[in-house]
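FAQ: What does the model actually see?

It sees only this:
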Amino acid sequence: MVPTQLTVLSAFAAVVLFAWSPLLAVERLRALFVWPTRTLLANYLVVGAVVVVVQVLSYFVVALLVAGTGSVTGGEAAGIVAGVIAANVLVPGAAAVACLRFLPDRGVWTPDSSAGVGGRVALAVGVGWYAVVASVTFLAFALGIMLVNLPT
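And it is asked to produce this:
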């Protein structure tokens, strides 16, 4: 059972990271991924994996708060979906606020741009796009899991 669940979580992470990757064309967002290694791809995968793991943990918290440990009814399912969509905005939003607060002080990243889109606007677009991608991916995976587990 665990390998199946890990496969679903890995597929979710891969879809979200792949769908968010075109935003790396924005120089201020690409500049966020200069740490912990010297390679953009490795940094993107490490930081992205951390964000997705925190995101999935927030899904578990939402499910436990809404439905507890029992069976999920229709109203609870709607509450879980609403909570997940809220988490899809709040988790990357908190990460963006942390970037704006801590990274400039450490000299790692600055939101100012000499040309092109500023870092604050780029982060806002990135948070919005992440929320859309993660929500659509979650709903697609949830629907797929529901259909696979229907009684025959």
